[in-house]
Structure formats: structure tokens, C-alpha cells
Amino acid sequence: MKDMWKRRVQEMRMDYKTVEKVPYLSFPILEKTGLVKQGFSTKLGGVSQGKFATMNFTFTRGDNRAHVLENYSRMGKALGVDVERMVLSYQTHTTNVRLVTEEDAGKGIIKERDYENVDGLITNVPGITLVTFYADCVPLYFLDPVHRAIGLSHSGWRGTVNRMGKITLEKMREAFGTRAEEVIACIGPSICRDCYEVGSEVAQEFRKGFDKRHWEGILAEKEDEKYLLDLWRANEIILLETGVKQENIQVTDICTHCNSDYLFSHRTTGNERGNLAAFLGLAEK
């Protein structure tokens, strides 16, 4: 099954696993630490139907709630985490990051969320699993192995140009004493440069937000004032500038749009879709 993916590079940067009949993608650099439970979902292995088929994790697009809850249950079993201690983001393309405590356990699943406009989550509570949602935007995973803390953030083009990765690390430093040079960071499955065409107004935002020496690596100009935008590289630059070591960064090799048979992609289907989810939790000691 691992050969089914259209990958952007030759080497495999992510593993494809199937546990309890649920397929998901995993980062080897995080897996080998033994400190976290982590994964990125696919469209496979769930019970949702129609445009949500089959492994949809959003409650807000019209899917049957019982189906979504069953999908969470299946993913929880696959990852070995407690669904009732998952904590869901409330994404609106902000750079707001929430410090998650034990009191937040279950929010978005078995409890109502008492927060909005949260695109990033951080915690140092073992057994809590952070959950964020995707259909082309970039998932950012963070592990501080020294202070035993994690972060998980959603970064579309707005989040990226406003440096969501840097802001998440700053929030982790404030809350846990995290040092960027000790962090392991991963850039997850999302739309690749070859598939992500943007207009001149978005390109201009990135030219304003990034040093000129990075423009060529982030933007490729096409005809009619269109550009190809590399969110993977842009986020990698942000992490490096913040102090994360190159050897501690793992960048995905899987594009959501190229692999729309297996991953939800807004560029492929628009709003007629479900959502993928990223999961990251500190393992119980």
C-alpha cells in the first residue's frame, strides 16, 4: 500500500501504517522518540458516506454526527489514545494558540468548546491528544523532548505569512521553557508547490513577509500574474529562522491535491468534502 502515494521526493519521509484496519500517515522522526502518539489521517478506514467517505473528522459540514464519532473512536484505537481526552481546535485562519490543560480534555468531542478562533494548541499534559483539521493547509507538529511538551498548529497561507510556526514555539517557550534548538518539528501533508496557484495579492504578502533572498524558493511566477506558492518551504524557513535545527525538521513528501483519492483536498473538490485531522499526544509515562 505504501507505493500507492504520489510523492514529491524519492525517499520516504512519512510512513504509511494500518492499525486496527485504520490507515494513517506517521512521522518517523517523532515515532522514534517514544514520547508521543501521532498520526495524520487519510480518507480511508471510517464509516462516513457520500462526499465525506469514509474517514471524516469534521462535525460542521453536515456529516452524520454518529459517523464522525465512530471515526474518532477508530482513530483513537489505532493510535492508542483516549478519545475522551482529545482536544479539538476551532480554526479560522488565525495565529491564536491555546494552552491546553487537563480541564480541556474532551472539548470538541464530548464537551462543548468554550473557545473560538484557535488554530494552534499546546500542552504538557500526558494523555491529552491535540487535534487540528486539514484539506490542503499545512499541519505543524512540535515536540519539546526536554520539557516534555507538544504543539500542533494549522497554517494555511495566512497562517504561514503571519508565522504560525514561530508563534507556536514562542507560546511553548512562555508556557514550558521550550528552546527552539531542542525542538523536533514536522511539516505535514498539505498542498505542494506544483499544485498551489495563487494570485498576485497573495504573492505580494509573501514578498512583504519574507526576506528577498527567499522569494525564488517560495514563489514561482507564471503567466497572467499567477504564482506557484511553496508552503512547505516557507514554513521550513520560518522554523529555521526561529532556531529549530535543520536535522530536527522533517518535511512531508505527500501532497493532498496530488493524492486526492486518499486525502481530502479543497483544491480538488471545494467544500464538497470532509476534513482530515492531525493528532499529537504526549505518551503516558
What do these coordinates show?
The chain starts with 14 loop residues before the first strand and ends with a strand. The mean pLDDT is 96. The protein is globular, with a radius of gyration of 18 Å. It has helices at 28-31, 65-79, 157-161, 164-176, 200-209, 215-218, 231-242, 266-269; strands at residues 15-19, 22-26, 36-41, 86-88, 97-99, 120-123, 129-134, 138-144, 149-155, 184-187, 197-199, 219-221, 226-229, 249-251, 276-282. By secondary structure, the protein is of the alpha+beta class. Strands 1-2-3-15-7-4 form a six-stranded mixed sheet. It has a six-stranded mixed sheet with strand order 5-6-9-8-10-14.
In short:
The protein is of the alpha+beta class and 285 residues long.
Layout of strands and helices, then pairs:
Layout: E1 15-19, E2 22-26, H1 28-31, E3 36-41, H2 65-79, E4 86-88, E5 97-99, E6 120-123, E7 129-134, E8 138-144, E9 149-155, H3 157-161, H4 164-176, E10 184-187, E11 197-199, H5 200-209, H6 215-218, E12 219-221, E13 226-229, H7 231-242, E14 249-251, H8 266-269, E15 276-282
Parallel strand pairs: 4-7, 5-6, 10-14
Antiparallel strand pairs: 1-2, 2-3, 3-15, 6-9, 7-15, 8-9, 8-10, 11-13, 12-13
